[in-house]
Write a structure and sequence with these properties.
The protein is of the alpha+beta class. Helices cover about 35% and strands about 10% of the residues. The protein has a 6-stranded antiparallel beta sheet with strand order 1-2-3-6-5-4, with no helix packed on it. A hairpin with a 4-residue loop joins strand 5 and strand 6. Helix 4 packs parallel to helix 6 and helix 9 packs across helix 10. It starts with 6 loop residues before the first helix and ends with a strand. About 25% of the residues have low confidence.
């Protein structure tokens, strides 16, 4: 009996031609891809100031293609950073924070960072992964759990997706005090399995992508994940440069762990949501991912 692939796994085929529109970009002159270049795909997770967050917003647009790496941008004074961002930010329609509003993210986080809006899961829900109370009006019989291809049975409610009696909450970036210290230990590694002989690239990426998402959730970076399309484009870029994708991602994850363990992070960087449920697919039985090619949203049951 032939097993039909989940629809989310085949959706990338229809988007493959859009890879050149991805915010993740590789320098033409590079002969190898550094860890820092890979980390650009998770720019917001590494941003320490409002200016750096604005840099990430611009970097994710065509107008930001010529911007320096985040590490090089960080070496400049705030005044110089503003000059660097001025023209590309204007083209991208990104507002640069006012000068007196510049601030560095404190390790403990700010009240604004920790406080979620009414449309987002509260801190207890984010920490315990508990589902919100279900509606008082229930169908007479409990519907069967949808299969991976049954996303059309679900309803998108901005910060959550309802599939029958199951609720999948939008996962945001979490402050470190909402995580267990063990997630930053050496034992927590991102180690993709090797690609099997003769295995199609799409099959391989579809097999390891859920592991990447789960590992990002583990360190509290639910709002800082790559879409499957960007994930695949990164694979192509690394392989074309003669690098090893599994090794590069393992290194990137270690750097993200280090940065995250020493810095606070914004809960969300964009207060938008998927346009509709057609942008979403089941990744696993407990995770739904939605994307518009350049932005990714992760919902977890």
């Amino acid at each position: 009996m032939t097993t039909q692939k989940p629809r989310w796994q085949t959706k990338i085929c229809r988007k493959w031609q859009l890879a050149d529109l991805l915010a993740f970009s590789i320098g033409v002159s590079c002969t190898a891809i550094s860890i820092a270049t890979l980390a650009d795909a998770n720019c917001h997770a590494l941003a320490r100031t409002d200016l750096e967050a604005a840099y990430c917003d611009v970097r994710a647009t065509p107008a930001g293609k010529k911007l320096p790496s985040l590490g090089d941008f960080r070496k400049n004074t705030p005044g110089m950073q503003r000059l660097i961002l001025k023209k590309p930010a204007k083209k991208a329609g990104v507002e640069i924070p006012e000068q007196n509003a510049d601030r560095e993210h404190k390790t403990s986080g700010t009240a604004a960072d920790k406080k979620l809006s009414i449309q987002e899961p509260n801190s207890n829900e984010a920490k315990t992964n508990k589902s919100p109370p279900t509606p008082t009006s229930r169908p007479s019989a409990r519907p069967a759990r949808p299969s991976f291809s049954g996303i059309d049975r679900c309803s998108l409610l901005k910060n959550q997706i309802q599939c029958g009696y199951d609720y999948y909450l939008l996962r945001v970036n979490l402050q470190n005090d909402a995580l267990t210290p063990a997630v930053f230990s050496a034992e927590n590694r991102l180690s993709f399995p090797a690609r099997n002989t003769g295995e199609a690239q799409l099959d391989f990426l579809s097999r390891i992508y859920p592991q990447y998402i789960e590992k990002m959730l583990a360190i509290g970076l639910g709002d800082s994940t790559m879409s499957l399309t960007r994930f695949a484009a990164t694979y192509d870029a690394v392989e074309d440069a003669g690098g090893d994708f599994n090794t590069r991602f393992a290194e990137m994850y270690e750097m993200l762990k280090t940065e995250k363990s020493h810095n606070a992070i914004r809960t969300r960087y964009n207060q938008n949501y998927p346009q509709d449920i057609t942008a979403c697919q089941f990744l696993t039985s407990t995770i739904i991912v939605c994307d518009n090619v350049t932005q990714n949203w992760v919902y977890e049951r």
